[in-house]
Amino acid sequence: MPMQISISNAIKGQVMASGGNLLLDLYPNAALAYSLRRLSSSFSGSPIRVRRSSDNSEQDIPFDGSGDLDTANLLAFVGSNDGFICDWYDQSGNSNNAFANSAANQAKIVSSGVVETDNTNGKPTSVWASDKYDLTNNVLTTIEYYNIVKIRRPNRTTNTIITIAANTTSPRILTWSPSGSGNAYVSNMDSQVTFGSSVLQSGYILDTYRQADGEMFLFRNNAQQGGTPNTTNVGSTLNRFGSRGAQFTTGEYQECILWNDNTYNDRAAIYDDLDTYYQ
To answer: What is the mean pLDDT of the chain?
Structure first.
């Protein structure tokens, strides 16, 4: 049975700034952090584990010397085949990895020997086709949180983007639904609320947070979206990355980080870090 981790008590102080200038060195105490780049100088592991289609063998893929995904290592392993991410390793220090045991639920990172890349920033990306990942440890909702993701939504009529959620329909931090659901930005951290909607399709940084008074905010590429709904639920279980209930993500992911407490006070600097790297 998975361990329960409260966001507000998620091993605080374990991930301390180590003198580095990476994102989690400067803004530590994340509850979980998945990315194709190095986020913490104290994280010594690989960002992902990949399965190749030829024989279903798996291998951890490290960072290169610049802190980017080592694509040479990736292609040396996958060859001319397809490669799929079976595990996202948590760079927060909490070991809350995201895993997909079923091949049907694994996002693609290599297609026929070519690394999948974002068509704007040219950096490696993961391509999801109704995919989902389970969390090693459950995360319990608290009043305050801050979640930021780098995604691409290539098709507004079919693509669904889901951040951190549950294996039931709620709670979920954020879903950006396709046209059949009005292209709405939806959260359900108590009762279902929306931040308005958008039919845009491209690459985006989405960040959303909830304050101590329960008021919620959403930004897309640093522009606030919709209103500021209020929910106050705490203690509900988040246990999925990219999925809620039977609804899975279709689109692209490069990064997803969830912080505890009021890290949203640093949102301008955190946004700038992602914007600079992924521009």
So the answer is: 92
